[in-house]
Amino acid sequence: MIQIRSLLQGCLELVTLPCCHLCHRALEAGPWQPLCSHCRERLELPGDGLQGPLPFPWWSLGWYEGSLRKLLLGQRKTPEPSTLHGLAKALRLTMPAGLVDRAVLVAIPSWKRRGSNPLPGLICQGLGLAVIQPLRRQRPTLGQHHLNRALRARNQEGAFSCEPAASHAEARARRRQTVLLVDDILTTGATAGAAALALREGGFAVAGLLCLARTPAPGRDLRSMTATAVASRDSSVGRAGD
Fold this sequence. Notes:
Layout: H1 2-16, H2 37-42, E1 50-52, E2 58-63, H3 66-77, H4 81-92, H5 97-102, E3 103-107, H6 119-127, E4 130-131, E5 135-137, H7 149-156, E6 160-162, H8 168-176, E7 178-186, H9 190-201, E8 205-214, H10 227-231
Parallel strand pairs: 2-8, 3-4, 3-7, 7-8
Antiparallel strand pairs: 1-2, 5-6
Helix pairs in contact: 4-6, 7-9
Protein backbone atom coordinates (compact mmCIF):
# COMPACT_ATOMS: atom_id res chain seq x y z
CA MET A 1 0.00 0.00 0.00
CA ILE A 2 2.83 2.39 0.89
CA GLN A 3 4.52 1.70 -2.45
CA ILE A 4 1.28 2.33 -4.34
CA ARG A 5 0.74 5.54 -2.42
CA SER A 6 4.27 6.70 -3.20
CA LEU A 7 3.79 5.86 -6.86
CA LEU A 8 0.51 7.79 -7.00
CA GLN A 9 2.13 10.74 -5.23
CA GLY A 10 4.96 10.74 -7.77
CA CYS A 11 2.50 10.70 -10.66
CA LEU A 12 0.54 13.54 -9.10
CA GLU A 13 3.67 15.62 -8.74
CA LEU A 14 4.55 15.05 -12.39
CA VAL A 15 1.11 16.35 -13.35
CA THR A 16 0.98 19.30 -10.96
CA LEU A 17 4.58 20.50 -10.63
CA PRO A 18 5.57 23.24 -13.11
CA CYS A 19 8.04 21.94 -15.67
CA CYS A 20 10.66 23.52 -17.92
CA HIS A 21 9.25 24.29 -21.39
CA LEU A 22 12.39 22.93 -23.07
CA CYS A 23 13.47 19.77 -21.23
CA HIS A 24 10.23 19.18 -19.27
CA ARG A 25 12.07 18.62 -16.00
CA ALA A 26 10.44 19.89 -12.82
CA LEU A 27 11.44 23.48 -12.14
CA GLU A 28 13.51 24.35 -9.11
CA ALA A 29 11.97 25.92 -6.03
CA GLY A 30 11.96 29.72 -5.95
CA PRO A 31 10.53 32.48 -8.13
CA TRP A 32 8.75 31.04 -11.15
CA GLN A 33 10.76 30.70 -14.36
CA PRO A 34 9.60 29.07 -17.60
CA LEU A 35 13.06 27.54 -18.12
CA CYS A 36 15.09 25.47 -15.67
CA SER A 37 18.58 26.49 -14.59
CA HIS A 38 20.11 23.64 -16.64
CA CYS A 39 18.54 24.90 -19.89
CA ARG A 40 19.40 28.51 -19.12
CA GLU A 41 23.01 27.50 -18.55
CA ARG A 42 23.09 25.36 -21.69
CA LEU A 43 21.78 28.27 -23.79
CA GLU A 44 24.07 30.72 -21.97
CA LEU A 45 21.21 33.08 -21.13
CA PRO A 46 22.15 36.09 -18.95
CA GLY A 47 20.08 36.28 -15.79
CA ASP A 48 18.31 39.49 -16.76
CA GLY A 49 18.58 39.07 -20.52
CA LEU A 50 20.17 41.64 -22.80
CA GLN A 51 19.05 45.15 -23.61
CA GLY A 52 20.29 48.13 -25.57
CA PRO A 53 19.24 51.50 -27.01
CA LEU A 54 20.15 51.17 -30.71
CA PRO A 55 18.57 51.45 -33.24
CA PHE A 56 15.86 51.95 -30.60
CA PRO A 57 15.26 50.22 -27.24
CA TRP A 58 15.34 46.45 -27.49
CA TRP A 59 15.21 43.46 -25.17
CA SER A 60 16.56 39.98 -25.87
CA LEU A 61 17.04 36.64 -24.11
CA GLY A 62 20.67 36.16 -25.14
CA TRP A 63 23.32 36.22 -27.83
CA TYR A 64 22.72 34.59 -31.20
CA GLU A 65 25.51 32.04 -30.92
CA GLY A 66 26.19 28.53 -29.67
CA SER A 67 23.29 26.47 -28.40
CA LEU A 68 20.75 29.29 -28.64
CA ARG A 69 21.60 29.87 -32.30
CA LYS A 70 21.33 26.13 -33.02
CA LEU A 71 17.96 25.97 -31.24
CA LEU A 72 16.50 28.91 -33.17
CA LEU A 73 17.74 27.62 -36.53
CA GLY A 74 16.02 24.33 -35.78
CA GLN A 75 12.83 26.11 -34.76
CA ARG A 76 12.71 27.93 -38.07
CA LYS A 77 12.67 24.62 -39.92
CA THR A 78 10.37 22.77 -37.50
CA PRO A 79 8.65 25.13 -35.06
CA GLU A 80 7.61 23.70 -31.70
CA PRO A 81 5.03 26.03 -30.14
CA SER A 82 5.72 24.83 -26.58
CA THR A 83 9.44 25.56 -26.95
CA LEU A 84 8.87 28.99 -28.47
CA HIS A 85 6.21 29.85 -25.92
CA GLY A 86 8.65 28.96 -23.15
CA LEU A 87 11.36 31.17 -24.64
CA ALA A 88 8.83 33.97 -25.07
CA LYS A 89 7.71 33.72 -21.45
CA ALA A 90 11.36 33.96 -20.38
CA LEU A 91 11.73 37.01 -22.64
CA ARG A 92 8.71 38.63 -21.01
CA LEU A 93 10.47 38.44 -17.65
CA THR A 94 13.23 40.71 -19.03
CA MET A 95 10.78 43.51 -19.94
CA PRO A 96 10.30 46.59 -17.75
CA ALA A 97 7.13 46.26 -15.68
CA GLY A 98 5.65 49.44 -17.17
CA LEU A 99 5.87 48.02 -20.68
CA VAL A 100 4.29 44.71 -19.73
CA ASP A 101 1.27 46.58 -18.38
CA ARG A 102 0.54 48.56 -21.54
CA ALA A 103 2.38 47.10 -24.53
CA VAL A 104 0.72 46.03 -27.78
CA LEU A 105 2.71 43.63 -29.96
CA VAL A 106 3.30 43.73 -33.72
CA ALA A 107 5.10 40.76 -35.28
CA ILE A 108 7.41 41.72 -38.14
CA PRO A 109 5.90 39.98 -41.19
CA SER A 110 7.86 38.05 -43.78
CA TRP A 111 7.57 38.91 -47.47
CA LYS A 112 7.52 35.21 -48.39
CA ARG A 113 4.14 33.57 -48.81
CA ARG A 114 5.66 30.12 -48.72
CA GLY A 115 8.45 29.25 -46.35
CA SER A 116 7.93 32.43 -44.34
CA ASN A 117 9.45 32.77 -40.90
CA PRO A 118 6.83 31.55 -38.38
CA LEU A 119 8.72 32.54 -35.26
CA PRO A 120 7.62 36.18 -34.68
CA GLY A 121 3.96 35.17 -34.56
CA LEU A 122 4.61 32.25 -32.21
CA ILE A 123 6.72 34.48 -29.97
CA CYS A 124 3.79 36.92 -29.75
CA GLN A 125 1.52 34.08 -28.65
CA GLY A 126 3.95 33.07 -25.92
CA LEU A 127 4.36 36.62 -24.63
CA GLY A 128 0.66 36.64 -23.77
CA LEU A 129 0.07 40.32 -24.56
CA ALA A 130 -2.34 42.05 -26.94
CA VAL A 131 -1.40 41.60 -30.61
CA ILE A 132 -2.31 43.71 -33.66
CA GLN A 133 -1.07 43.50 -37.26
CA PRO A 134 -1.31 46.72 -39.26
CA LEU A 135 2.02 46.07 -41.03
CA ARG A 136 2.18 44.90 -44.64
CA ARG A 137 5.13 44.01 -46.83
CA GLN A 138 5.28 46.30 -49.85
CA ARG A 139 7.81 44.35 -51.86
CA PRO A 140 10.26 41.45 -51.72
CA THR A 141 13.69 42.06 -50.23
CA LEU A 142 17.03 40.35 -50.79
CA GLY A 143 18.47 37.84 -48.38
CA GLN A 144 20.78 39.76 -46.05
CA HIS A 145 23.34 37.20 -44.87
CA HIS A 146 26.13 38.80 -46.90
CA LEU A 147 25.01 42.45 -46.87
CA ASN A 148 26.76 45.06 -44.78
CA ARG A 149 24.92 47.61 -42.65
CA ALA A 150 24.48 50.20 -45.40
CA LEU A 151 23.22 47.64 -47.93
CA ARG A 152 20.82 46.15 -45.41
CA ALA A 153 19.34 49.57 -44.71
CA ARG A 154 18.95 50.23 -48.45
CA ASN A 155 17.47 46.77 -48.96
CA GLN A 156 14.73 47.51 -46.40
CA GLU A 157 13.83 51.05 -47.53
CA GLY A 158 10.10 51.19 -48.21
CA ALA A 159 9.72 47.47 -47.54
CA PHE A 160 6.76 47.99 -45.18
CA SER A 161 3.55 49.95 -45.13
CA CYS A 162 0.98 50.47 -42.40
CA GLU A 163 -2.75 50.15 -42.91
CA PRO A 164 -4.33 53.62 -42.57
CA ALA A 165 -6.62 54.33 -39.65
CA ALA A 166 -10.27 53.79 -40.59
CA SER A 167 -11.53 56.76 -38.58
CA HIS A 168 -10.42 59.75 -36.50
CA ALA A 169 -11.23 57.74 -33.39
CA GLU A 170 -8.90 54.95 -34.49
CA ALA A 171 -6.17 57.48 -35.27
CA ARG A 172 -6.47 58.88 -31.74
CA ALA A 173 -6.40 55.37 -30.28
CA ARG A 174 -3.20 54.59 -32.17
CA ARG A 175 -1.43 57.56 -30.62
CA ARG A 176 -2.29 56.21 -27.16
CA GLN A 177 -0.94 52.71 -27.83
CA THR A 178 2.58 51.63 -26.92
CA VAL A 179 3.77 49.29 -29.68
CA LEU A 180 6.58 46.76 -29.38
CA LEU A 181 7.84 45.07 -32.52
CA VAL A 182 8.58 41.35 -32.24
CA ASP A 183 11.16 39.35 -34.21
CA ASP A 184 13.27 36.30 -33.54
CA ILE A 185 16.73 37.85 -34.12
CA LEU A 186 18.15 41.38 -34.11
CA THR A 187 21.29 42.08 -36.13
CA THR A 188 21.78 45.61 -37.49
CA GLY A 189 18.18 46.68 -36.96
CA ALA A 190 17.56 47.44 -40.64
CA THR A 191 14.37 45.38 -40.84
CA ALA A 192 13.08 46.54 -37.47
CA GLY A 193 13.89 50.16 -38.30
CA ALA A 194 11.97 50.03 -41.57
CA ALA A 195 9.00 48.40 -39.83
CA ALA A 196 9.06 50.99 -37.04
CA LEU A 197 9.14 53.84 -39.58
CA ALA A 198 6.05 52.49 -41.33
CA LEU A 199 4.19 52.15 -38.02
CA ARG A 200 5.10 55.69 -36.98
CA GLU A 201 3.93 57.03 -40.31
CA GLY A 202 0.67 55.20 -39.59
CA GLY A 203 0.29 57.05 -36.29
CA PHE A 204 1.63 54.46 -33.83
CA ALA A 205 4.12 55.14 -31.05
CA VAL A 206 6.84 52.47 -31.28
CA ALA A 207 8.57 51.89 -27.95
CA GLY A 208 11.07 49.25 -29.03
CA LEU A 209 11.70 45.66 -30.10
CA LEU A 210 11.50 42.26 -28.41
CA CYS A 211 13.62 39.44 -29.84
CA LEU A 212 14.86 36.06 -28.70
CA ALA A 213 18.48 36.65 -29.70
CA ARG A 214 20.88 39.47 -30.55
CA THR A 215 23.70 38.89 -33.04
CA PRO A 216 27.01 39.84 -31.38
CA ALA A 217 29.49 42.14 -33.02
CA PRO A 218 32.27 40.16 -34.73
CA GLY A 219 35.54 39.55 -32.93
CA ARG A 220 34.32 40.29 -29.42
CA ASP A 221 34.88 38.02 -26.43
CA LEU A 222 31.41 38.32 -24.95
CA ARG A 223 32.27 36.44 -21.80
CA SER A 224 34.82 39.05 -20.75
CA MET A 225 32.39 41.97 -21.09
CA THR A 226 29.14 42.87 -19.40
CA ALA A 227 26.09 41.98 -21.43
CA THR A 228 24.46 45.38 -21.45
CA ALA A 229 27.68 47.17 -22.43
CA VAL A 230 28.18 44.99 -25.49
CA ALA A 231 24.49 44.93 -26.28
CA SER A 232 24.25 48.68 -26.60
CA ARG A 233 26.58 48.66 -29.61
CA ASP A 234 25.40 47.88 -33.12
CA SER A 235 26.70 44.76 -34.81
CA SER A 236 27.09 44.30 -38.52
CA VAL A 237 26.71 40.64 -39.41
CA GLY A 238 24.05 38.07 -38.82
CA ARG A 239 21.14 36.60 -40.68
CA ALA A 240 18.92 37.30 -43.63
CA GLY A 241 15.93 38.76 -41.86
CA ASP A 242 17.54 41.74 -40.17
